[in-house]
């Protein structure tokens, strides 16, 4: 299970949310991996440029090997972050794979923003991108208003409902992957 997201700030609210969702996936017994913040600082995606730097190659290979993904983006001005969008653009490099794009993979999604409008619109954009990449968005997605919910360093949050939602998203992705593999 691969987690992608967060922001450039170490320990950001969106990165902490992503960690909680990955913990939910781990509860099902799957291995998890996190690519966040500085690991996602990549050159702008260019389909016409075949050469990839080390971080882009790491991301592409991690997505290629993943049976499921969890993507959490901060909501900036009503949209997903450029950091997360650029990382998702690199999935285009899987177009010619036996399992192209995100085909056959569950993708759990959540957005964390300072306000409900940005949290909801960011989640909707993540769903649209997931569908365009042939991924199976989990039935439950998370819109988290960081004006009301604060994540802590210990893996919790001020709102237990947000923690339960994120863990359930992680479990849904992991259960889909395990069921599909069987």
UniProtKB/TrEMBL annotation:
Ranges for domain NADPH-dependent FMN reductase-like: 2-139
GO MF term set: FMN binding; oxidoreductase activity
Organism from which the protein derives: Amycolatopsis pretoriensis
Coiled-coil stretches: none
Name of the protein described by the UniProt record: FMN reductase
GO cellular component: cytosol
Top-rank taxon: Bacteria
SUPFAM superfamilies: Flavoproteins
């Amino acid at each position: 299970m691969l987690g992608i997201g967060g922001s450039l700030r170490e320990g950001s609210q969106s990165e902490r949310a992503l960690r909680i969702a990955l913990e939910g996936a781990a509860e099902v017994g799957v291995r998890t991996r996190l690519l966040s913040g500085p690991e996602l600082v990549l050159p702008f995606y260019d389909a016409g440029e075949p050469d990839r730097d080390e971080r882009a190659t790491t991301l592409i290979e991690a997505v290629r090997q993943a049976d499921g993904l969890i993507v959490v983006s901060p909501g900036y001005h009503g949209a997903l972050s450029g950091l997360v969008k650029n990382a998702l653009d690199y999935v285009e490099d899987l177009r010619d794979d036996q399992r192209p794009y995100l085909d056959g993979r569950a993708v759990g999604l959540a957005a964390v923003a300072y306000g409900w409008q940005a949290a909801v619109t960011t989640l909707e954009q993540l769903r649209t991108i997931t569908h365009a990449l042939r991924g199976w968005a989990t039935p439950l997605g998370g819109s988290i208003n960081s004006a009301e919910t604060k994540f802590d360093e210990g893996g919790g949050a001020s709102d237990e409902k947000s923690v339960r939602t994120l863990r359930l998203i992680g479990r849904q992705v992991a259960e889909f992957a395990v069921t599909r593999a069987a």
